[in-house]
Write a structure and sequence with these properties.
This protein is an alpha/beta fold. Helix content is about 50%, strand content about 15%. The chain has helices at about 15-25, 40-50, 55-60, 75-80, 105-115, 130-135, 145-160, 170-200, 205-215, 220-230, 240-255, 260-275, and strands at about 5-10, 30-35, 50, 65-70, 95-100, 120-130, 140-145, 160-170.
Length: about 300
């Protein structure tokens, strides 16, 4: 049954490539992949024994279901532009598009309308997790869209996620994901300040992390980023640039709701400092480089 479903991917960066590998291992047929970085697509296509497509349109032509894992609103609008002959809409009829990028809720609502006008269906499947979870099929997926479309996609989503939740209509999952990342990013910046201050006061950071883990300072971010901050190991799992983008989405939602979120504002400011310093592609844990004494000219 699985081998008859043709799966395509548009966007095969850190997350998309590992989701494709996971589905291949689970017996799904990867028909075509496409990425702006053609060299990366060529390499992965050989590994997955699929076509390295020249355009999103070609991916949709080859596939029954297309995952999109692109970077931002502009990229999503480009691949879903109804006037773009190289875009997905050229072959939208009877296709299911599963959109995994963290973009603004309005984009997901807009895309659902466009795809339905062309006799296809669309679902947002916002991801919580990183490269390891994508590879292992243990992502937390927050989905938005029509219930029948969610039901259609669920078997496939269960192959890449250990938890798959239908949040509501189009755009609702994107709202929840923005809030998740806003809180996560603020926690990361706060942890960097706690460890940075501890180091300045000559507290053993391994001891401090252990105390944090058993008190009110405990967090998932402490588990994933604490040691990296201490060791200055910032191999990218979730980039500082994406942290800034995602928290900014939440701040825009807050402004629309008439709320002021000073902690989130300060966090975005820290990540934008990293981007300005040319460190936007480091992991979000690199925010510690701004707070530890002796790093970054502090």
């Amino acid at each position: 049954m699985k081998s008859t479903i043709q799966i395509g991917f548009v966007g095969i960066g850190r997350m998309g490539s590992n989701m494709a590998r996971r589905l291949k291992e689970r017996g799904y047929r990867i028909a075509a992949i496409q990425d702006r970085r053609s060299e990366s697509a060529d390499l992965l296509s050989r590994e997955l024994e699929c076509e390295a497509a020249s355009s999103p349109s070609r991916v949709a032509e080859c596939s029954d279901i297309v995952f999109t894992v692109v970077s931002d609103d502009a990229a999503m609008r480009e691949i879903y532009d109804e006037q773009n002959p190289a875009g997905l809409i050229a072959h939208a009829k009877d296709r299911l598009f599963i959109n995994c990028a963290t973009v603004t809720p309005a984009i997901h609502r807009e895309i659902e309308h466009i795809v339905e006008r062309h006799s296809g269906s669309s679902l947002e499947a916002c991801m919580a997790g990183s490269i390891t979870q994508a590879r292992q099929g243990t992502l937390f997926l927050m989905c938005g869209g029509k219930t029948d479309v969610f039901a259609q996609a669920l078997p496939l989503l269960n192959a890449v996620g250990s938890t798959v939740r239908h949040i509501g209509s189009a755009g609702q999952a994107a709202i929840v994901k923005a809030l998740v990342n806003m809180v996560m990013n603020s926690n990361t910046a706060a942890l960097a300040e706690g460890l940075g201050l501890g180091a300045a006061l000559e507290i053993d950071l391994t001891l401090l992390r252990d105390v944090f883990s058993q008190t009110g300072a405990a967090s998932r971010v402490l588990e994933t980023d604490g040691e990296d901050m201490q060791q200055r190991a910032h191999e990218c799992f979730f980039s500082a640039a994406h942290a800034a983008k995602d928290s900014a989405i939440a701040l825009e939602l807050a402004r629309d709701a008439g709320l002021s979120l000073p902690v989130a504002e300060a966090t975005v400011g820290q990540y934008r400092r990293l981007i300005t310093a040319g460190k936007g592609e480091l992991d979000k844990s690199a925010v510690a480089e701004l707070t530890f004494k002796g790093r970054n000219n502090n």
